[in-house]
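[[Local backbone shapes]]
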Amino acid sequence: MPQRARRPPVGRRVPGGSWRRRWLGQGSEGVHEGGVPDTAQPPQIRANPWNTLEFSGRIGLAGGRVVDEAVIAYLPEGFWPAVPRTVDAASDAARREVHLDIDPKGQITLRVQDGGSVEATWLSLDSASCRIEGGDAE
């Protein structure tokens, strides 16, 4: 007897859009000289049907530091938020939080809690997301 495909449970969201792996290029197209895509967990992005930009993967930090206000990447056109966004990023930085500021032109800038810099060798983008569209319900 052939097996029938199971339906997803009611109310469960189905992910949308395919992951884009090559959005972190070199130079003006992607990561600055201090950031290196992790080959074991490559950085990926996708936009889902709910106008949310989802991130996945890891970025290695060649200099071993997270520096406040360092530009680390540029999103491709079509993935830019309508208004500036700030998202949390996990890292191996001790005692200080790291965030990503994303501007409406797709520039991604590192932000370190209380400014300055902190030792770190990687940033994880897993579970980071933000709205792409603007609007009243921010």
Q: What stands out?
A: Residues 5-14, 25-32 have pLDDT under 50 and may be disordered.
